[in-house]
Design brief:
The complex is a heterodimer of chains A (181) and B (210). Chain A is α+β, with helices and mostly antiparallel strands. Helix content of chain A is 19%, strand content 28%. Chain A has a seven-stranded antiparallel sheet with strand order 1-9-6-11-4-3-2, with no helix packed on it. In chain A, strands 5-10-7-8 form a four-stranded antiparallel sheet. Chain B has one domain: Jelly Rolls (Sandwich), CATH 2.60.120.330. Helix content of chain B is 35%, strand content 30%. Chain B is globular, with a radius of gyration of 17 Å. The chains are: A alpha+beta (181), B alpha+beta (210).
Chain lengths: 181, 210
């Protein structure tokens, strides 16, 4: 079950982080996997998308999100401060995602390139943080929880790294989300 | 937005959805169609009436409505939305499902309906922040005083699909749940990141005096 952990807006200036990355090109644009990539679990996501008619922006659809990474796009101290706040000793993956208006990240779980090895690990804990101001249209659905107009800095712990989720933006400004596991 | 109640025991919404799904004459709304329709309505609506009989006040009101449409679309464009990818379908009583459906719904609420439609939002589609510019809004307000807007969640709860009205995000509702908007002009939006097409029933009307 998704669990609220706390609020870190007093220890991280998320407005400053957003301002910094908003001026940059993303490290890459998601989704990064192709339909026939030989990764365990990918097919159940791509099958659902295909069945429902989802297409990437590149293919004429609306599926697209921008990925910003520590070191590359924002200071690693942000991730470190966050880890300290939630009590995470170390992390494997960290990113800030951005969904632009009228784009979406449809229902999926985050299939990783190293899924074969990661699926064996039992020590992974995943968190996300709402780093933007509460804004009309900025929606994150994790499992069966719909998170809307969350205060800036709100942190949630996920049931699992591989929990199904989706991100929507029917607002007029980009939606940013900090993710770490 | 206020929760009114549930009408699933009074209306077979699955049947309404089925009729909409089977219809090939749903009204496809796009940025272009919505604005063009309104402009044509204004310019071609009995030309003599438009030019001669319409009062100055009416002409100003209509021009204001067009400006409202243009503002909504301008906001979408300024936000970077891909306007070509914004669309939704509407289905109307009498054309796509029996009028008795809207009659029953109106009777539950004590409303005389003025505008009724089922909206359909496909997976991957977002209808961004806007209000439903109503061509006849000024006329109806003058005539009926106050307008009321209702939304009924007519589909089963669908993962990944939301309707946001003002500050309220409708998600994981029960089929048949009815909500009254704070104002018929409330800004709202819809997005569907789920597997299924999402349907909502909407009614705008005025309250019948007892």
């Amino acid at each position: 079950m998704l669990e609220r952990v706390g609020n870190c807006s007093k220890i991280i200036d998320w407005n400053e982080v957003i301002k910094e990355i908003a001026e940059q090109r993303p490290a890459y644009i998601g989704p990064s996997h192709k339909e026939d990539d030989p990764i365990p679990g990918l097919k159940e996501v791509t099958d659902l998308w295909k069945r429902s008619g989802f297409k990437t922006v590149a293919d004429g659809g609306t599926v697209e999100w921008d990925m910003f990474l520590p070191h590359t796009n924002f200071n690693i101290s942000i991730a470190e401060k966050f880890c300290e706040f939630v009590g995470l000793k170390t992390y494997t993956s960290c990113w800030i995602s951005r969904i632009n208006p009228a784009r979406c990240s449809p229902w999926h779980w985050d299939v990783h390139d190293d899924e074969v090895n990661l699926s064996q690990r039992t020590d992974i804990v995943r968190y996300h943080c709402h780093i933007g101001q509460p804004t009309h249209g900025h929606v994150l659905i994790v499992d069966n929880f719909c998170l809307y107009k969350q205060p800036q800095g709100e942190i949630y712990k996920w049931p699992s790294r591989t929990t199904w989720h989706c991100g929507l933006n029917s607002g007029l400004t980009p939606k940013y989300l900090f993710n770490i596991w | 937005m206020k929760y009114i109640g549930n009408c699933a025991d009074k209306i077979d919404w699955n049947e309404v959805i089925k009729l909409c799904q089977e219809s090939v004459t749903g009204d496809r709304n796009t940025v272009v169609s919505v604005v063009e329709r309104s402009e044509v309505n204004l310019q071609n609506r009995e030309p003599m009436q438009a030019k001669v009989l319409m009062s100055v006040a009416e002409q100003i009101a209509n021009e204001q409505l067009l400006q409202e449409y243009r503002k909504v679309i301008g906001d979408w464009r300024d936000a970077g939305c891909d306007l070509d990818k914004i669309y939704w379908y509407d289905y109307y009583p009498g054309d796509h499902y029996p009028e008795s459906i809207s009659d029953t719904f109106a009777a539950i609420l004590g409303i005389r309906p003025l505008r009724v439609f089922v909206s359909e939002v496909y997976p991957g589609i977002t209808v961004p922040y806007h209000w439903d510019v109503e061509d006849k809004g000024p006329e109806w307000l003058k005539k009926y005083g106050m307008l009321y807007r209702y939304t009924c969640c007519i589909d089963a709860p669908r993962v990944g699909s939301v309707l946001i009205v003002d500050d309220h995000c409708l998600y994981d509702f029960k089929q048949g749940d009815i909500f009254e908007w704070d104002s018929y002009r409330n800004y709202h939006s819809a997005a569907n990141g789920g597997e299924h097409i999402q349907y909502y029933f909407h009614m705008l009307g005025y309250k019948i005096k007892c």
